[in-house]
Every structure is written in structure tokens, then in C-alpha cells.
Amino acid sequence: MNSFENMTLNSVYKQGEKLLKEADIPDADFDSLYLLEHFFGADRTALILHGDKTADESLCERFFSAVEERKTGKPLQYIVGKWNFMGYDFYVGEGVLIPRDDTEIVVEAALDFLKGIKNPRVIDLCSGSGAIAVSIAKIFPDSDVVALEYSDLAVEYLKKNIELNGADNVKVFKGDVTKCYGDFSDESFDLVISNPPYIESDEIDTLQPELQFEPRMALDGGKDGLYFYRIISEKWSCKVKKGGMIAFEVGEEQFEPVAELVKSHGFENVTYRLDLQGYKRTVAGVRTISN
Ligand code: GLN
Question: Does 284 contact ligand 1 (Cβ within 6 A)?
């Protein structure tokens, strides 16, 4: 006899929560409910209305094997394989950074800037899953967006996400951000945007277990975390049109140094936006000089 016989939806959810709690997974309640919705299509309302219905056994099997995976610390996003960002779905999995809520803030700053520009040309450096590039391209169908990414695995996700969202105005460029700037003309972009790796190398191993499943390459910002901001400011600033913008997501204590960097490369009106915890999460500046 299968152990999932005659389990109700409610007992599946409760059991999932219990197993995750016992494994010290934070937000066990949220995760169990999320997996329930993913496998059974049942949200909290469905649970209230139909929680006493018998749950399909084969779905139970899939649900509990997902719970087992989650117990190892594997992020929920990788287990379900898709995550929402700016209202769009993105395929994610090991090898690509999971799109974060924080990153929506830098996209919003970009959107406000691009509103006034006809046929904007944008490049997203270290594009990863393409969350930034695809959202901008969808919101501005008349934009031309380049998504630059180095990792083979991430490029595969990027391509799939462009297709999933029908974002035909995104072109993938596979290249190393520290080397391939010569492939782009000077002053050819209205916006250079990036969420580069920005965690200090030594800090990564001390962070939450979920992060250890993510590609180190997408997180490691060098000894002081600022390596990519330096390279991008130095090598890519000249690609921004006069009057165009550079916009970065930054780590918790990085606004000041990154603001200084962009100012020293010809950007003014440098502004930030706060994340939900009150950290300055973005740096955006307008280029006031010409090459
Ligand atoms: N925001 C991510 C984190 O702190 C880091 C992303 C990045 O390095 N760009 O988990």
C-alpha cells in the first residue's frame, strides 16, 4: 500500500510544512504552500474550500520528493524551475542566478528613464537569466536590447526566456564583460544596465545555504565586491550616449563607492532607490560628457 493513499490536500500541506520545519528550512509554511500550488494547482483559498478532498497519489509523490529536495537547502526556485520577475515568468535552474525582488528596483529606475525615449537602445551586462533585459524589452516593445552573458549555461536559460516571453527585441551576445567592450560602438546606448556579481569573495561561503546552490560566478565580485563596477565604469561608460544612463544594482554597503566610480567617469545626477529593508540598492547616473 502506498503511504500517500487517502491523504487530503490539507494533510499534504501540513505534512510538507512539518518536514521542512524539522529540517530547519525558514518559511516552511510558504514553501509548502508554494509547492502545493505548483503540483496541485491549489492556492490558500482552494485549500480552505477543498482541503478535505483526497489528493492524487502520483502528485503526492512528486510533492514529497520536491520537499525532500528543499530539505537539502536547494532553493525553491530551482525545484519548481520557474520564477516570476516584473510579472514575467523566467526559467531558472542551477547555473543561473535566481531573479530577486531587489533587482526589480533597478528595472523600475530604468523604466522611468526610458519612458521619455523613442526606440531606446539598451545593453544588460551580466544578463544571466535575462530577467532585466527581457522585462525592459517587453515593457518597451520599440526598444532594442542586447543581453550580454558569458556563461554557457546561463546563455541557454537566457535564450529560453527570450522565447518564453516572445521578447524578439532582445539579442543575445555571448561574451566576457571584461573584454568584449570593443565589439560595441561608442555612444550607442541610451542605457547600460547591470546587476553584476557583487559579493565579496570571502563572504560567499558564510551566506545562507540556498546561495551555495547558485553559480559562484554570478555572485563573486572579487576581494572587495567592486571588481565588476570598476571594469564596467572604466570600459563601458563611453558606450553610453550623452544624456544616456548607467544603472546598477549594488550590494548593501556599496552605494557610496559605486556612486563615486560612476561620477569619476562622467556621470552626474547620481541617484539611488531604497530596497524594502531601507538599503540603497541602486546607483543610476546620467552621462553629461561626449567622447
Ligand atoms: N542579490 C544577490 C544576493 O545578495 C547577489 C546578486 C549579485 O551578486 N549580483 O544574494
Answer: no
